[in-house]
Amino acid sequence: MDHTPNRTQISVVVPVYFSEGTLLALSDRIHKCLLRITFGFELILVDDGSQDQSWQLIQLLSNSSTHVKGIKLSRNFGQHYAISAGCRAAKGEWVVVMDADLQDRPEEIEVLYQKALEGFPVVLASRKDRKDDFGKILSSRLFFRLLSWLTGSKFDPQVGNFGIYHRRVIQEFNRMQEPVRIFSVMIHWMGFPTAKIPVQHEARPEGKSRYTFRKRLNLALEIVLAYSDKPIRLMVKAGILLSFLSVLFGLITLIRYFLGEITVSGYSSLIISIAFFSGVLIAMLGVVGLYIGKIFESVKNRPLYVIDQTTDSEMEIDQIIEYPFNSEAVATKSL
C-alpha cells in the first residue's frame, strides 16, 4: 500500500446521469477497494445534468469524505464530455474511468492497477460475459465491426470505457481538442501499449440504461463522421462505378439502335434512370452535408462543456475547460 502523504496515486472518474440509486453503494465499494491500495486517491463524480437527486447525493458524499469531489455540468452534454471534465480535473498518477451503474465492478480496480504496474500505460477491462440485454450486445457488436471497417482499426466490442490509464495518457487525451468526444476511440487512436484483462460484468441493479437505441444510433453516426472519411471515399468510388455503367449502358443502347432493335424510346426506363440517379445524388449530397455540418459546429469554437458548480473550491477549474481548436485554456469559475 502507498502511504505517501499529500500524493494522489489514483483518480477515479465517474460520469453520473440519473444515478441516485447507485451512488452511495458505488462510493462505498470504491472506498473499500482503493483503501487497500493507497490512502492517496480521489473519486471525481461528474453530474451530467441529472434531473434526479444525483447532485445532492454527490454533495453529501463530498461532505462526508475528503476523497470525493463533485462537478456539476450546466446541462446534459453527454457521457464522454462528462468524462473529459473529470479527466481534466484528475490529479492522480493513474486515472480509472468507469460507469456509475455498478455494472463495472469497483473491486476490479485493484486487478487493473496491478496489471498496470507491470508497465502498461493503458489497461482495459474486457467484459467476457456481458450482462446486457441481447439487443444491446448485438448492436454493439455490429457497430464495432462497422467502425473497425470504416477506420481500418480493430475495436473490441467487449471493451468499453472501464480501464486504468497512466497520467501521461490522460494528459494527451486532454490535449485532443476535437469537439466530438468518444473516450475509448480517442484512447485507441493514441496507440499506447495496451493490456486487456477479463473482468466480471454485473447486471444493472436497478432501472434501465439511458442509452436508448436512438442515442446509440446518433452516437454511431457521430463517431463515423468524426473518425472516418471512408463514406466520402465510397461516394467517389460509387460515382466512378456509376459513370462507367452509364457509359456501358449508353454504348449498348447505341449498338442496339444501329442494329434496329430500338424503334421507340422507352418512357419507363427513362423515368427509372432519372429517379435512381437522383436518389444517389441526393444521398451523396446528404453525406457531404453531414461532414460540412460537423465543420460548422467546430468553427463555432464553443467550450466542450460548461461547469455549473463544484464541491471543491480548490479544484483547478482553469485546467478543466478547454475550447476546441484553441490552444489556450479558458478559465471558467464555478458559479
TrEMBL record:
This chain's source organism reads: Algoriphagus sanaruensis
- Annotated keywords: Glycosyltransferase, Membrane, Transferase, Transmembrane, Transmembrane helix
Question: Which InterPro entries does the entry mention?
Answer: Glyco_trans_2-like, Glycosyltransferase_2, Nucleotide-diphossugar_trans
Predominant place of localization: membrane
Q: Where in the cell is it found?
A: Membrane
Superkingdom of the source species: Bacteria
Q: Output this protein's name.
A: Glycosyltransferase 2-like domain-containing protein
- Which residues does the UniProt record annotate as the domain Glycosyltransferase 2-like? 11-155
